[in-house]
Amino acid sequence: MYVLVTGATGFIGAHVVDELLSLGHQVRAASRSCEKGQLLKQDRPDYASQIDIVQIADFTQGTSFAEAVQGVDGVIHVASPLDYTITDNEKDMILPAIAGVKAILQAAEGQESVKRVVITSSFAAVLDVNRAATPHHTYTAKDWNPLTYEEAIAKDSNAIIGYRASKKFAELEAWKFVEERKPSFDIVTICPPMTFGPVRHPVSKLANLNESNANLWKVASGAELPVSRVPLWVNVRDLAKAHVEALLRKEAGGKRYTIASPEKFSYKLAGDIVTEEFGWGRERVAKGEKQNTEGTHDLDGETVARELGLTYTSFRETVKAFVEQAVAMERRETS
Ligand SMILES: NC(=O)c1ccc[n+]([C@@H]2O[C@H](COP(=O)([O-])OP(=O)(O)OC[C@H]3O[C@@H](n4cnc5c(N)ncnc54)[C@H](OP(=O)(O)O)[C@@H]3O)[C@@H](O)[C@H]2O)c1
């Protein structure tokens, strides 16, 4: 199968690329930067003949995927903006996220060979942050974040709210497109919570780590113990496998999946694991009070595991694999 992957040079996208390559598929990796695309390819010398790179424009610049979809059988659309330093939620995050989804679906509609588009949404499109603490609720793919567009673009809304809205309204755009246009392909959306694990995309230095792993590194490097807002998470390789299985399994068509490890996490727990697993951990990890991992809600990770054949990786293994890699990067940076 020939698959276009957007966001391929990002944290999750690079794992999606690896999962596809390991199963023998052909990958076209989309990036705004040819240089980043080439680095992704260079890092996979054994698969050079299975990867080609296509350059696309920023989602704020009228992106078209018309060229990128030529000849592909399926698409995994991972790319979406995430920047908590923005000042205009609508212009900088919500409209670009929607534009990205629209552009990929319009291009797929014009390319008969495309049979399915898998879209990375987020638990942010599912969670109701104002939900009362009781009774206990298990979020499933039926739940939608109730945030309104007006609330999200209000002057006093911060970038976290902007991100939550960008994921919700971009995903809604996808479902609306399919309902209205009835294209010859179907879609699957996947809504992950915090995602952790080793890095497989081009990261030049630790300071450029993606948001979720940057938090783990803050713990391991003793910088600070971030607040654990929601104790739900998933391993990046498990998530990548879910994307690829969602593309390959016929019966997944038209479904929305939530995904989550059955284990809860906190940054304090991550610190304890680093202390136990690494000799230097006791001296270095960020100290702090025990953080609550119980929470008032759960997230359904069982349906996707059953239907797409996933086995969840433990938090211990995930933290260990990432920290080993980050420490090696640090050594290279300081030598
Ligand atoms: N990491 C998490 O914990 C987490 C949790 C839930 C959901 N997600 C979702 O998973 C997806 C990937 O996240 P990630 O952690 O892998 O992020 P990431 O490392 O920042 O990768 C995202 C990629 O999207 C592309 N991109 C970003 N802004 C863009 C824009 N304005 N126009 C065009 N392309 C743009 C970039 O590719 P180029 O620079 O190569 O163009 C970037 O590499 C996103 O949809 C995110 O919302 C992530």
UniProtKB/TrEMBL annotation:
Please give the InterPro entries that the UniProt record associates with this protein: Epimerase_deHydtase, NAD(P)-bd_dom_sf, NAD(P)_dehydrat-like
Q: Which UniProt keywords apply?
A: Oxidoreductase
Leader sequence residues: none
Family to which this protein belongs: Belongs to the NAD(P)-dependent epimerase/dehydratase family. Dihydroflavonol-4-reductase subfamily.
Start and end of every NAD-dependent epimerase/dehydratase domain? 3-259
Q: What is this protein called?
A: NAD dependent epimerase/dehydratase
**One Pfam entry name:** Epimerase
Q: Name one GO molecular function term.
A: oxidoreductase activity, acting on the CH-OH group of donors, NAD or NADP as acceptor
